[in-house]
Amino acid sequence: MLSMIEHVRTNMAPIYMSELILDLDPLAERIIIMDRSTANVLYSGKSAPSLIFHFDKRYSELNDIVVIMFDNQREFNAEIGDGVVVSLVEVISAGL
Question: Is the pTM of this model over 0.70?
Answer without folding.
Answer: yes
